[in-house]
Amino acid sequence: MADTPHPNDHPKSEPVGNAVKDPSDWTTGDEPMTGAQASYLKTLSEEAGDAGAYDENLTKAEASLKIDELQGKTGRGQ
Q: CA 22 → CA 15, 28, 35, 52, 62, distances in Å?
């Protein structure tokens, strides 16, 4: 009788530790931020009272880090 793999042995059966990559490791991190990132970043910067946090020239990776920072200030994303 052949060994039948246990369902939990499947690599996609549970979240993987690298499911959330560090933005500095993104292959597209140096591309311009997406429209969704720009919109959300602008909203967060206004809510945080930090208009200088929004910069339309940020990369995807930079925008992601700035969003994380502003979510901490505004209490969003928790």
A: 16, 12, 20, 24, 11
Domain spans, the chain: 29-78
pTM above 0.85, yes or no: no
Sorted by sequence, the CB contacts under 8 Å of residue 30 that are 6+ apart come out as 59, 60, 61
* Close Cβ partners of 57 (under 8 Å, ≥ 6 residues apart): 32
> Tens digit of pLDDT for each residue in 2-61?
566 555 555 555 555 545 677 777 777 788 999 999 999 999 999 999 888 899 999 999
